[in-house]
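Input record (one chain):
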Amino acid sequence: MSKRSTGIHHITAVVGHPQENLDFYTKVLGLRMVKQTINFDDPGTYHLYFGNESGSPGTIMTTFPWPQSRRGRISGGQVGITPFAVPDGALDFWEGRLKEKNVSVMDGERFGERLLQFDDPHGLRLELVERSGGESNGWSIDGISPENAIKGFGGAVLYSVMPEKTCALLEQGMGLIQTEEEAGWIRFQAAGSIGQVIDVKREAMPLGSMGSGVVHHIAWRAEDEADQQEWMAHLRQAGITPTEVRDRQYFKSIYFREEGGILFEIATDPPGFTRDEEPDRLGESLQLPPWLESEREKIERVLLPIRLPGAKGGER
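The corresponding structure, as predicted from the sequence alone:
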C-alpha cells in the first residue's frame, strides 16, 4: 500500500499560564481561539486550540497550559521549531508588530528563505516565513488584515535522536518527498498546500525533556476515518504499531513514536470544531465531551478563569 501525507493537521505544545498563552496567540499573533476544552487524559488541564477563522486542519496550534510546569528542554525527539506561514510581502509588517508588542525578534534564513525567529512567553520556538500556498485567513483582530494574517503552519522543524531513521520514516512511511539539502538540514515536502514543509536537523541530538515551552506531539492529516484506517494498515506493514483509535471529539486520532523519539499522531479532518458550537461562536465557552459533562462543575472549579479577547461578559 502506498500512502502520501498531505501535511500537518495540528501541533500541540506544553505551555505555562493559560491567560498568557491565550493573549499571545490571539492578541499578538492574531489567531482565533477556535476551541476551549480540556485535556481528555488530564481533565484538570485546559486544551486550547488556535487557528484561522474556521479552524481548518493545517492551521491549528493547540496547547496544554500547565501553570506550575517546569521549563522543558528543547532537543532530540521533538518538533524543535514551529514555523507559521504568512502571505508574500508580510514579514516587514510582522517584524514591526512583534517589536511593537515587545517580542524579541531575530532574522534567520534556511533554504534561502528569510525567517523571523522568536519565542512565545513560555519558551516555545516559533518562526514566520512567507509562503504563497494556502488560503488567506479572514480572521481580523487588532489591525491584522488578511493581507498579513497568519495562514497556518509553514511546516515543522524536527530534532531527532536518530535523524537517519526519522528521515527514512518521513520518506518511506509518510510519503514525503525530499526536495533540498543544505549544511545541517534536509527538507521534505508533503502533498498539501499548507503545513507541508518539514525540515530535519542533520545532527543527532540528545533526548529533550518535556515541560513548558516544548512541543508535545505533531499530528498529520487523514482525510477521514477510512483514510485513517488505511494509514493504520500502512504503518503496520512498515513495522509500526500505532495506538487504537481515540475519540478527540473534533477528530479521531492514532499515535506512535517514531525511532527518532518524536511522537506522531494521525488525525482525521472531520468532524471539525463546529460540531458543538456555531461558526461565529467558536471558542467562546468551555466545551466538554459527553462522557465528562457530568463532571463540569468539578472541572470548572479546578480550571483557572480566562478572559477572551473581545468576549462578552469577560472572564469565563
